[in-house]
Amino acid sequence: MPAFSQAFGIHERALGVRSQRMEVIARNIANADTPNYKAQDVDFKAMLKEAKTEHLQATHEKHFAGLTDAPDNGMRFRTPFNSSFDGNTVEMNVEQAQYGKAAVEYQTTLQFLENKISGMRKALRGE
Amino acid sequence: MQLDNVFGIAGTALNAQAVRMNATASNLANANSVAGSEQEAYRGKRPLFKALLKEEMTHGGAQFMGGVKVDRIVQDPAPVRKTWDPGNPLADKEGYVFHSNVNEMSEMVDMMAASRSYQNNVEVVNTARQLMMRTLEITKA
């Protein structure tokens, strides 16, 4: 049923990227006191593009090796506002703000999905 | 699902911060301990945190990649203070006792920092839990 596999559009994949971002920021907060830990974040645009593209794959023995375009995992290191003594680049206030923002964005995507589901339900019921 | 991992990651951090608070409690409790020799004197304990960035550092069964663990506990290298107190039963031949090198002020500050970090991670768990509950409710939409 192609109608249902594409029913949620981009939001299905977006929800995955959003929850991954929550995980990355949780990592940063967990490692706020770890010496030499470098804070990371997810480039949402790059990850969503990655989720939509198909990469070159060697499917024949005569295909050139090494020509495959490396997948971009979307992870970027954060540039801190201030440098710290122990080489840690986690800035707790920034991470808290980003975590809150990521939570809201997650709920936004969730709301879009909910709307799609309730719309589909209405269509199925025919009320 | 990534939102599951948030609980594990925040859990490792709660654990690490609890160890840190335990070390602080131990340091504060021994702030006034004295010993009969420089070697036996109490030295402040400091947990050293390390990020769990590689698969082999984590234990099987649970996905805690990206969490934190207490790598080891190091001794505070600050010199211990010695005072002349011949009446003390622990005093050495020359009448000296050796105090711990714990600085109570910096221990209190460290305890507050650990407590704040702990609270941050509790908040992370709370938010993730709320989002997960909402995700479960998506079927009711």
Notes on the protein architecture:
The complex is a heterodimer of chains A (127) and B (141). Chain A is mainly alpha-helical and 127 residues long. Chain A has one domain (19-53, 69-125). Chain A has 4 helices and 2 strands, in the order H-H-E-H-E-H. Chain A has helices at 2-5, 11-30, 44-52, 92-125; strands spanning 40-42, 75-77. In chain A, strands 1-2 form a two-stranded antiparallel sheet. The longest helix of chain A is centred in the C-terminal third of the chain and has 34 residues, at 92-125. Chain A is flat and about 65 Å long. Chain A starts with a helix and ends with a helix. The mean pLDDT of chain A is 84. Chain B is an alpha+beta fold and 141 residues long. Chain B has one domain. Chain B is 43% helix and 17% strand. Chain B contains 2 helices and 5 strands; from the N terminus they run αβββββα. In chain B, the strands form 2 sheets. A 3-stranded antiparallel sheet of chain B has the order 1-5-4, with no helix packed on it. In chain B, strands 2-3 form a two-stranded antiparallel sheet. In chain B, helix 1 (2-29) packs antiparallel against helix 2 (104-136). Chain B is elongated. The mean pLDDT of chain B is 88.
